[in-house]
Write a structure and sequence with these properties.
With about 70 residues, the protein is mostly beta strands. The protein has a domain at about 5-55. It contains one helix and six strands. A four-stranded mixed sheet has the order 2-6-5-4, with helices on one face. Strands 1-3 form a two-stranded antiparallel sheet. The structure holds zinc ion. Zinc ion (ZN) binds near residues 65 and 66.
């Protein structure tokens, strides 16, 4: 059975670089919870690299605040 993966593109917290993470379904739900707030959403694992990132909501420049930052943990 092939595992479903989702592409997620938060900004790296320190540099602002746009990441391209591959998340499993559980982490995809973590990354999208509390959307529109600046709250910490949780820690997700990039399926490509195995690196773990803390995801937090961030401003996208619009009132929706739909962007997010990722900080490696
Ligand atoms: Zn937005």
């Amino acid at each position: 059975m092939k595992m479903q993966t989702y592409t997620y593109t938060p900004r790296l917290k320190n540099t602002g670089e746009r990441l391209q993470l591959m998340l499993n379904e559980v982490d995809w739900m973590v990354a999208n919870q509390c959307r529109g707030t600046f709250r910490v959403r949780g820690i997700v694992t990039d399926q490509k690299t195995g690196k773990r990132y803390r995801i937090q909501g961030a401003s996208c420049g619009l009132p929706c605040h739909c962007d997010a930052t990722a900080e490696e943990v």
